[in-house]
Amino acid sequence: MSAALHSNPAAPGTALRTIPRQITVARAGFALVWAAAVVIAVGNKVPTTGTELPTVAAFLLASYPLIDVVASLVTATFTDTRALRINAAVSALAVVGISVAAFGSDAGATLAAFGAWAAVSGAIQFGMAVHRRRARGGQLPMIVSGGLSTLAGLSFIAASRNDEAHLATLAGYMAFGAVLYLLWARRDDTSSAGT
User: Fold this and answer.
1) Under a CB-based contact definition with an 8 Å cutoff, are residues 168 and 61 in contact?
2) Model confidence over 139-181: pLDDT tens digits?
3) 166: which strand partners?
4) How many whole angstroms separate alpha carbon 42 and alpha carbon 56?
5) By the 8 A CB rule, do 184 and 24 touch?
6) Strand partners, 48
7) Statement: residue 112 has pLDDT above 90
8) Whole-angstrom Cα distance, residue 98 to residue 90?
9) Rounded to an integer, what distance in angstroms lies between the CA atom of residue 71 and that of residue 9?
10) Could you tell me which of 159, 54, 58, 59 has the C-alpha nearest to residue 108?
């Protein structure tokens, strides 16, 4: 999603301009499906911080950062952005960390691991969006998304110490992030159409 992909609408590779947007829409769709699947997997027995996770919920939470890994790596092939590759590496490490917590510990440890990933990847997204906004504008949903992800991650870490904290908030985090990605994709599409 670099400025080079959007700078010359008459260029032969103009179709490549829409690929990062399409990746973003697909990423948002997967996030919405993941959020619904987490709610279904947990059911009406939402695990508190001291309880073990149902196996399906553990798998879904541990594998959620894979959406970030795939989206970042695919987008990086079209934009050659080092920050995207760094984000993919951070998210790949998160898959391992969240897996260890989800399958080997309790819901509180999983919430903390997920929160650490959300905070770090949110900070990376926020920084990238601010940088892109200076270059070409149209990044407000991604700035908001990155900032909120960072704050949400820190709140997940804090909540992981509370007995009454539970994982239902993670599905809301996934769904809200998906909506912000869709807003960005729509905004990027309309701003590209006007150039």
Assistant:
1) no
2) 777 788 889 999 999 999 999 988 776 777 888 888 888 887 7
3) 48
4) 8
5) yes
6) 166
7) yes
8) 12
9) 24
10) 159
Output b/e per residue, 127-163; b: 16+ Cβ within 10 A.
ebbeebeeebebbebbbebbbbbbebbebbbebbeee
Q: In 3-state terms, what secondary structure has residue 6?
A: coil
Q: Where are the alpha helices (DSSP H) in 4-64?
A: 19-42, 55-63
Q: How does DSSP assign 61-120, residue by residue?
A: HHHTHHHHHHHHHHHHHHH--HHHHHHHHHHHHHHHHHHHHHHHS-HHHHHHHHHHHHHH
DSSP 162: S
Single out the residue of 17, 132, 190, 78 nearest to residue 140, CA to CA. Answer: 132
Q: Is the pLDDT of residue 107 over 90?
A: no
32-71 pLDDT, tens digit per residue, is: 998 888 888 877 776 778 888 888 889 999 999 998 898 8
Burial class (CB in 10 A: 0-12, 13-18, 19+), 174: buried
The token duo for 31 is: 């996030």
Is 68 or 100 the better-scoring residue by pLDDT? 100
